[in-house]
Design a protein that fits this description.
Layout lengths: L1 H37 L6 H27 L16 H10 L1 H35 L1 H4 L6 E2 L2 E2 L3 H41 L1
Helix pairs in contact: 1-2, 1-4, 1-6, 2-3, 2-4, 2-6, 4-6
Length: 195
């Protein structure tokens, strides 16, 4: 029982982490790339883009580690890239022309959509059943409705509570499946980057 509860807590943390990291990747890369392109006519833009694209490997490896921790899906790490030799502009050209950088940015920014979906589904499958379970404690003090039916009796509150327990069991399996799907997304990201 304790192990199942800890697994569900771990799943909720991973779903929330997926949302937060998706928002971060979208904001970081969107702002950085737009700013770098906007300033590319100055001396600042190209080095900014170069340094932003160098972060892709770090973030992709971080995603691999988080997937291993929360889903037990093992993914082989990417080989470390060596910086191109030459002056700063040759290094910038090498980073900007590296297709793996742009593929990584694409997959990391897509995580925003997956994060939004995981947030909504995570709330529905983990928070809603808990709210159903505490209905008998809350209905005397709050005006609660369940599918537009007012909860005003002990029998109705107990029925909703039992539905909450049933949903906890079923949603636990759905949550495990969702977390495995998100881990599979990370695996697909690595396959795309390795091509």
């Amino acid at each position: 029982m304790k192990r199942a509860i800890m697994r569900n807590v771990q799943n909720v943390i991973f779903l929330l982490y997926t949302f937060v990291s998706g928002v971060f990747y979208l904001c970081f890369y969107m702002v950085s790339i737009v700013l770098g392109l906007g300033l590319s006519f100055t001396v600042v833009g190209i080095p900014l883009l170069t340094n932003v694209l160098r972060t892709t490997q770090t973030f992709v490896q971080h995603e691999r580690i988080q997937t291993k921790i929360y889903t037990d899906i093992s993914i082989e790490p990417l080989e470390t890239r060596q910086r191109a030799e030459g002056n700063q502009w040759m290094q910038a050209k090498a980073e900007l022309m590296n297709v793996k950088n742009w593929i990584s940015v694409y997959w990391l920014m897509q995580k925003f959509v997956i994060g939004c979906i995981s947030l909504v589904i995570g709330v529905l499958i983990y928070i809603a059943p808990i709210c159903f379970v505490v209905t008998p404690l809350l209905y005397p003090y709050l005006e609660l409705t369940f599918f537009e039916i007012r909860v005003d009796s002990d029998l109705m509150a107990l029925q909703i509570m039992s539905l909450g327990f049933i949903l906890m069991i079923g949603c636990s399996m759905i949550g495990n499946g969702l977390v495995q799907l998100i881990g599979g997304y990370t695996r697909l990201m690595f396959k795309a980057i390795r091509r």
